[in-house]
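[09:14] KT: can someone run the structure on this one? pasting the chain below
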Amino acid sequence: MTEDEARTWLEQNFNVSRGTWEKLEAFITFLKAEAERQNLISASTLDHIWARHIVDSAQLLMFAQSQPGQWIDLGSGAGFPGIVVALLSDWHVVLVESRAKRIEYLNRAVVLLGLEGRATVAGMPIERVETQKFDVISARAFAPLSKLLDLSARFSTDKTKWLLPKGRNAVNELEEARKAWDLDFSVEPSVTDPEAGILVGTVRGTNIQPASGAIAGAAAKGRRKR
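[09:31] RB: done, structure tokens below
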């Protein structure tokens, strides 16, 4: 997908207002400037941000339920997909990031883009994030699926939609994780890379509905197979 094709794809699939286009452009400018200070994205993708990062993030919204609610993005890093989701939708996104420079960068991005009401930075390791139930969980290049489930199933219910771009290793990671977890996942093709896969689905074993922001408080509910 070229940069022009990426912009066309956004126009065809999202009702992108002029103001949102301007914020996307501002985000890219901000990201490129910050990339001179820290390694936010691969240098080889700096000239292909629309396709490799913006659309790659935006496509996850196609798999989310239609009613916006609470979304947690694990290992947000440069803000993908979390910042893009917040810009293109009415979801409230919690951006989990543990690295100090990236926490500071994400906080500045939220203010720059006027996302204070729709994006919150949880600047801490995932293990320290208070247990809360979310409607959607995303993670892009954060951890292998089995480890990701171990770390974050406590944020999930039977209804929570997991949206996990996994590149070309999606099938292998899913097969390995199914040895320990009861998963209703499918592998969906990525619009930006026909050889890459997105893991989409739910983790069975929890019966509490998403709390839409209420703190649930205790133990993990993502139940392993017995």
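[09:33] KT: thanks! The CA atoms of residues 97 and 224 lie 26 Å apart.
[09:34] RB: yep, looked fine to me
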